[in-house]
Amino acid sequence: xxxxKVNINGAPYQAEVEPRLLLVHFIREVAGLTxxxxxxxxxxxxACTVLVDGVxxxxxxxxxxxxxxxxxxxxxxxxxxxxxxxxQEGFWEEHGLQCGFCTPGMMMTAVALLERNSNPSDDEVRxxxxxxxxxxxxxxNIVKAIQYAGAKMRGEPxxxxxxxxx
Amino acid sequence: MIPSAFDYAAPQSLSxxxxxxxxxxxxxxxxAGGQSLIPLLKFRLAGPELLVDLRKVPALDHLxxxxxxxxxxxxxxxxxxxxxxxIASRYPAxxxxxxxxxxxxVRNYATVGGNVAHADPAxxxxxxxxxxxxxxxxxxxxxxxxxxxxxxxxxTFETALAPDExxxxxRVPRPAAHSGSAYVKxxxxxxxxxIIGVAAQVTLDGEVCAQAGLGLTNAAPRALRPREAETFLVxxxxxxxxxxxxxxxxASAADPVSDLRGPADYKRAMVRTLTTRALRLAAQRARQx
Amino acid sequence: MAxxxxxMGHSVKRKEDPRFLRGKGNYVDDLKLPGMLYMxxxxxxxAHANIKxxxxxxxxxxxxxxxxxxxKDLDAAGLAWMPTLMSDKQMVLPVDRVVYxxxxxxxxxxxxxxxxxxxxxxxxxDYEPLTPVVDPIRALDPxxxxxxxxxxxxxxxxxxxxxxxxxxxxxxxEQAAVVAKEDIYIPRIHVCSIETCGCVASFDRIxxxxxxxxxxxxxxxxxxxxxLVSGIPEHKIRVISPxxxxxxxxxxxxxxxxxxxxxxxxxxxxxxxxxxxxxxxLQADSFARDYHITAELAADADGTMKALRVKTxxxxxxxxxxxxxxxxPAGLFSICTGxxxxxxxxxxxxxxxxNKPPGGVAYRCxxxxxxxxxxxxxxxxxxxxxxxxxPAELRLKNFIPPEKFPYKSAxxxxxxxxxxxxxxxxxxxxxGYQDLRREQAEKRARGELMGIGISTFTEIVGAGPSHTxxxxxxxxxxxxxIRIHPTGSAIVRIGVQTQGQGHETTFAQIAAEELGLPVANxxxxxxxxxxxxxxxxxxxSRSTPTAGAATAIAARKIREKGKLLAAHLLEASxxxxxxxxxxxxxKGDPSRAKTMADIAFAAYxxxxxxxxAGLEAVDYYDPPNLTFPFGAxxxxxxxxxxxxxxxxxxxxxxxxxxxxxxxMIVEGQIHGGLTMGMAPALLEEITxxxxxxxxxxxxxxxxLPTAMETPAWETDKTCTPSPHHPFGAKGVGxxxxxxxxxxxxxxVVDALSHLGVTHMDIPIKPWMxxxxxxxxxxxxx
Lengths: 166, 289, 781
Ligand SMILES: Cc1cc2nc3c(=O)[nH]c(=O)nc-3n(C[C@H](O)[C@H](O)[C@H](O)COP(=O)(O)OP(=O)(O)OC[C@H]3O[C@@H](n4cnc5c(N)ncnc54)[C@H](O)[C@@H]3O)c2cc1C
Ligand code: FES
Ligand code: FES
Description:
Shape of chain C: globular
Oligomer: heterotrimer
Number of domains of chain C: 3
Structural class of chain A: alpha+beta
CATH architecture of the largest domain in chain C: 2-Layer Sandwich
Helix content of chain A: 25-40%
CATH superfamily of the largest domain in chain A: Beta-grasp domain
Order of helices and strands of chain A: EEHEEEHHHH
Helix content of chain C: 25-40%
Number of strands of chain A: 5
Distance between the termini of chain A: 54 Å
Radius of gyration of chain C: 27 Å
CATH architecture of the largest domain in chain A: Roll
Bound molecules: flavin-adenine dinucleotide, FE2/S2 (inorganic) cluster
Number of helices of chain C: 19
Largest interface: A-C, 66 and 69 residues
Strand order of the largest sheet of chain A: 2-1-5-3-4
Number of strands of chain C: 33
Radius of gyration of chain A: 16 Å
Distance between the termini of chain C: 69 Å
CATH class of the largest domain in chain C: Alpha Beta
CATH topology of the largest domain in chain A: Ubiquitin-like (UB roll)
């Protein structure tokens, strides 16, 4: 057994775990944060994507012990003070999700992309999310959602595809 | 998919790492980025008793030019290569390679050292290292040694490293003036291992090829250097005709197998196509250099 | 003043999204119950083998392992086999034989997921390998190994099914000036929703109630089947389908894992969770397609189509566990005359057993419609080549003319409405068809290769009229229950189940439109058999045609009562009250009006003497017919002469799904459907080697498209409402999956047609194209 101590979304978590415990299971089952999903067993789908020290990472292909001492961010940490993150807002406004299963991972990748590149081209967005599979949306609206978020973060005016509820 | 149980250590020093490896003769595995090893553990295709994680071992993540070569610490991530100005300006084949290995998320962990040490003929860096004539620096109980990349890559999943040796660094000679390099990969979809990949580096003397390096991914049981093609190019004008002929020689050197990525004769033809394209691109870059 | 309801035609922001965006969805694997146990399944490495013995003693000795369930245990309880939806039976766990690779062999129940995973490696199974048969054509040879010796009929042939008029068809073929013929294989594929399948079964010993949270698209049907099979009374079973991470047809069947987990919970009295891995999902869960088709299309010399003849061998794997309406073993495959006016057609399908996993589910499509559309759309292009006619022109010449609707097809379907030329003209104009043809000619002259592919498909969705359609005897109606609360908000409960289609929003919009209540004030609930009205579930694009209609009708029932209440409040005769602009008003006097909120309040506080209190209604809707969405798709591809890679340059989809509830959601469904149409055209397939080993058992080889392979889809629409649907809608979730594959295949064949290519099987892989280029000296690095 090994000690793992991490911060997730700013809150400390500590547990005695088997070295083989996958990070995604630490997040879902030890920390109880089930927004991070598992969609495959071959490191292909990205449903498990979280930020480890700001870096988007497939948490199914990391051991919890490997990130001991790390600072993690999951989908649950995106909203701040009751305010959706621009990426969350973009996914809502542009209908960037259908079943929602890939969405947390997809959004974490998008957050990291926009931190590094505040004004990506559509092609750069597509390249950045190429490790995240979505079976429902066909990606077009995901690209729009990320562009919406980028524009919003740059302080530009934004309009989404959706009308808001009355 | 859940790995079977193992022990884990994250030593603070190289000597500690080596003695852990030595003390668990053959039952320990080095863990770098884990992007090849952890999937193998999950599918229970590997079952080491101990993982020796290099993440705390100092001085393995440098990426800089020293004494006429580029030093790539074994723990340098693909993403570091991909976003390095130095790599972009002087080692375009490495940039090409690091931006087509796996997908962007895997690249945030996968290390260049692990990519070469894993010795999977489907991995992209071995071919590039062949074309760039890299050397590997290893360290073990008997100290440090330097191994040419040709000697380092022994067979499928087999390198010259002893079980208690750690790959420390890959050294890529700084390209001479008027050099250009490229890596061209054909894949079934983004994130896939190569159907075929070809790395090329040429140095021009006017229009004449002064030096040539080539490496092939997934064209044989190990990353392959098509020697005859390299030899042929040296001293030739680097025009379409000599490029095509070199590509032909590379294709005949290839020894691919039929699998889901295509029949063997298709793959051989792809060695021809991609060698042509890699050489064209390398030559074009050399002219601009 | 009109009420702002955001009903039909509004791109309302999805009501379900706030929880998904925050990581607060409730998927099955998110559930954690006190005392919960975990199940893992040991699977067969062989495609065909006798099981001589199973020794689980080492596994049972492991700390944390509570039980190992085998076929023998289930057999003792009469549960080793279960019925399929197609009057066949299927092993839950084998007693003495496995019949496909990755078949369930035994299950471990343990206190932790990791322990269960370890324990399955400690079970020793003594297999005696048998020769498998993997090719369905070979399987029909009497000398082939028998897949199902348990059946009375000692053959691998399951059934023969046909539709249409054989004699008339044969006669037309004899007279035809031109006949195009192709062998078309539509490979086995897998839906691969990003969430795999699983369940938590929880049996409460005290009150005798079994609750199962399950990744299912059809919770009510599951409840009934479980009750019939287990003998547990139906009111003691509750099936909850919580948030589902994509379904596409793969979550319609009952998988052995659900049954074993349930048995384990019954036995232990503790909740049991089973979540399959992706490889298990891909290797053992229901596949789609796997149709070996020979199709012939007869025409006059001027291109007038006469008749279609189709013979198909359908590979069903080891059990016929297809998810089709009972009377339709080949689904709605006989829709294969498509959008064309033909005098006759004859379609035959033979179902065959092989040593492969069972299935035959949809893949984001209505029952076998994709197979039908692919066959006919490929044949039209093949015929065009024979006639040396432009494929668009040939289509326009043979479309069922708009004035012929409702149209009775040669195989007996009555198409509700359509305007095919309008859709194709729109697509051709928007994409610049003639310019593309010119560009193609110029490029060909230079040896460059581009292709233009058309698909003008007709779908058939919304099963179905219950006189024809049932599943295991349960008629295929669907349902809605609406309750309006005193302060003017409402709850809508439906018998269908969302897996991402946005029902919580669109059904609220339907109700809003019909009731005049704002969308924001309407909650939609579904997926819990204890609260939702009985329904057949969501698949085959049936939600809007069936439960959507039920919602409108239930709302209209409420409006009838509302009218009486309005008359009471307005002190007018009910005959003088009308429904205008989402409210009741006295005829000709807009100043005397009552909103539905007013009515709702009155229904509980001020209803007339003699009237029942409350404002609610239920409707079980039995559609008079299916609906027939259609579309015209055009795809432009470029071919890399050095590698044979096909690059989709443009893809335009003009869809017609009748009246639209939420345009944003419809467009999203089309984008997704197009991507799932492209995937089998260029990337996805499941194949087996001679020994029955799957070749694409993980996502490393089963190639789901990423954002990089997926083009920036272009969409447009025409609108031809369904005349028989209460609000003229047709259903859209799957049109694009159905229509896209032939558009892409046709484009690639078009690019190579001058080289004599008339057909290529999908998925079209670079090496297949390269081979053609090489043979014609067109390959160039
Ligand atoms: C989905 C997916 C797709 C991929 N696609 C590609 C691709 O297209 N092209 C490609 O090239 N790769 C691909 N990879 C592999 C990926 O790039 C690997 O991670 C990489 O090859 C190995 O690097 P690593 O740091 O992850 O090594 P690890 O997984 O940590 O180690 C791999 C092996 O090398 C040994 N090792 C590692 N470092 C050292 C060292 N310093 N000294 C001694 N031994 C060492 C380990 O013991 C182990 O045996 C893919 C991986 C995934 C998961
Ligand atoms: S779960 Fe699929 S990549 Fe992590
Ligand atoms: S929204 Fe369902 S997988 Fe992306």
